[in-house]
Amino acid sequence: MATILIIDDDDAFREGLAETVADLGHTPLEAGSGEAALERLRERCAPDCIFLDFRLPGADGLDVLEALRGVEGMERVPVVMLTAHATSDNTIGAMRLGAFEHLTKPVGRDEIAALLERMLATHSDAPAAAAPAFADEAPSREPQLLGISEAMRDVQKRLGRAARTHSTVLITGETGTGKEVAAHVLHRSSARAGGPFVAVNCAAIPADLLESELFGHGKGAFTGAHAERRGRFEEAHGGTLFLDEVGDMPLAMQAKLLRVLQERQVTPLGTNRPVAVDVRVVAATHRDLPSMVAAGTFRQDLLYRLDVIPLHLPPLRERVADILPLAEHFLSMLAPSADAARKRLSADAQRLLVTFAWPGNVRELANAMERASALAPAALLTRDDFAFLFDTATKTSGDGDAIPVGLAELPLNDALAQLERALIARALALSDGNRAEAARRLGISRQSLYTRLANLGMSDA
């Protein structure tokens, strides 16, 4: 049984709502104005949730809601705003101040019952045991390569060893795994930390402009070259040059890059003036470069030059131990201040997150936490607040010929295994971990599901 505070100056509506609340087994408290409601709260009344009308005598509903949030102990109490005439302004205003829901009068009994069930479950749901959110990490706004899984510990160790050298590093991994973050951390940990960090996305620059971008050009080198311009290699002198998506570099440019790596000097386009550069090159790609070498689309000699120290970032699905700590970390980063209360993950939300396939890896997880945190009505994030993850997955696979992100780059057996893993994880998440129900959704026997879980290393899912 919960205590429900109803704030409305319409006596008939307020009394009717109080009667409905009482019939549902709860204790209603009534107030005909914002001032009366605040007086009740000062008397140490502690409601479990509040129904608040927009139009009130004196201070209006939005002013009262703002005042309520300033009362000790009321910061997280869910508030439902009520109005006879919904407008975009009052709806947006209510949600901006943290209202749980916004309803238009009249409100039916079934709607009240369902809403109370949602609010009270969210308000009273104690959070599951908090996942370690990298408590030992020093707070930093700099890019951090966070992880407690064995796979990430190996990456961190290798990165630390690479930081002691000036050797070229090749970072591989799926889209969204944090390759640029790793490059930033490598630079910051190296003896070149005092020098510049210059990043170039080789896939984002047209092929006919990439040479000028990297090596610079002289005045009049081509139409529109009205002045001499330094290239990115020169800009990175004494520091680190990060070549992202190097697998997308045209073959002709690959030959020129190889020459620069060998001779450690660049010749700006349209000049005969070689310029010596002291640069550590860190390259990254989500592509399978050895396969590209075999297909004749990537130079083998360049691969040798780039792959002096290889650093592979594992996909998020292979570092399950990092999912919840990363989610908690992103939530803490989203809090408006260090002292502000941040949103938390319910037990069912945590189960969903660790069983989701995360085809977009850490980037997708960060975006999901930001979206859920921004749009969820309550301080406790539930599995319903992450329903969009499956909507996105459905849309991705809804186009008959569409291939989910990352699968097209994998060998067939690896792609099939990844898809099977994703479908099983989705079925388990939708059935809240019930394996019999998950097997039914997948159209296979429970024993077949157990076998597949074991083969995929998902027995603990």
Q: If you average the pLDDT, what whole number results?
A: 85
From the alpha carbons, calculate the radius of gyration and give it in angstroms.
29 Å
Q: How many angstroms separate the termini?
A: 35 Å
CATH domain fold name of the largest domain: Rossmann fold
Q: How many E-type strands?
A: 16
The CATH homologous superfamily name of the largest domain equals P-loop containing nucleotide triphosphate hydrolases
CATH class of the largest domain: Alpha Beta
CATH architecture of the largest domain: 3-Layer(aba) Sandwich
Strand order of the largest sheet: 2-1-3-4-5
Helix/strand-derived class? alpha/beta
| Number of alpha- plus pi-helical segments | 19
Percent in helix: 40-55%
Spans of at least 5 consecutive residues whose pLDDT stays below 50 are 125-131, 397-402
- Counted up, domains total 3
* Strand proportion: 5-15%
Instruction: Profile the largest sheet.
Output: 5 strands, parallel
Q: Assign an overall shape.
A: elongated
